[in-house]
Design brief:
By secondary structure, the protein is mostly helical. Helix content is 76%, strand content 0%.
Length: 209
């Protein structure tokens, strides 16, 4: 009982995360409600763990969840979602990999500086893992953008970020969250091969801006 009282926030976040993952696979719009609740509890958890960049990322996910819910609802009123056109999966070349890598490095640097400076200005405890927290957050931002553009390689970024996050949460003693990220890592591998298998020859072209 004492364990539940001490860890109920992490437990709640992980329960919502598992439900969110299930509904995401099912392409059910209620995933956005579950995602909102998941991010809310994770935001509190990461604040208490002094993972401030990760906490800020959850704030971003809160807004995305609200947008996703209303967008999916408005789409449902116009047409049957099951018959909606699917955005084709595309791939990127070495030059574009370099571009995303540079963006990730730049974001990591910016977030790292913020994590070093902002807590002092706000008289908050400093981040325990500023660089790791910054890299994880930057990678998540880039992977989310690639996911939105339906780029196959977003799954490769998520595999790296999920495994990296697993190490952070084990170090911080967030063992329930670590279990979730083991599942996320496995699902990212499944997602990559499923998207790659479903790519049509006519749309398996390199994306260029």
């Amino acid at each position: 009982m004492n364990w539940l009282l001490d860890n109920w926030i992490e437990l709640a976040g992980n329960v919502f995360a598992l439900c969110y993952l299930f509904f995401s696979i099912r392409e059910n719009r209620w995933l956005w409600v579950l995602g909102f609740m998941m991010s809310f509890f994770y935001m509190i958890l990461f604040f208490k763990s002094r993972l401030y960049a990760d906490m800020s990322l959850q704030v971003y996910y809160l807004f995305v969840s609200v947008y996703g819910w209303f967008h999916w609802m408005s789409t449902a009123k116009k047409e049957d979602i099951s018959e909606a056109k699917v955005i084709p999966t595309i791939s990127i070349n070495a030059k574009q990999w370099l571009k995303y890598g540079l963006v990730t490095c730049l974001l990591t640097l910016v977030i790292f500086v913020l994590l070093k400076k902002v807590p002092d200005l706000l008289e908050m405890p400093p981040s325990d893992l500023p660089f790791a927290d910054a890299f994880k957050t930057a990678g998540s931002i880039v992977a989310t953008w690639m996911l939105a553009r339906k780029i196959l390689e977003n799954w490769l970024i998520w595999i790296v970020i999920d495994l990296f996050s697993l190490g952070i949460y084990l170090y911080k003693g967030l063992y329930l969250t670590s279990v979730i990220f083991v599942i996320y890592s496995v699902m990212a591998v499944v997602g990559y091969y499923r998207w790659k298998h479903n790519m049509q020859p006519q749309v398996s072209k390199l994306w260029s801006e």
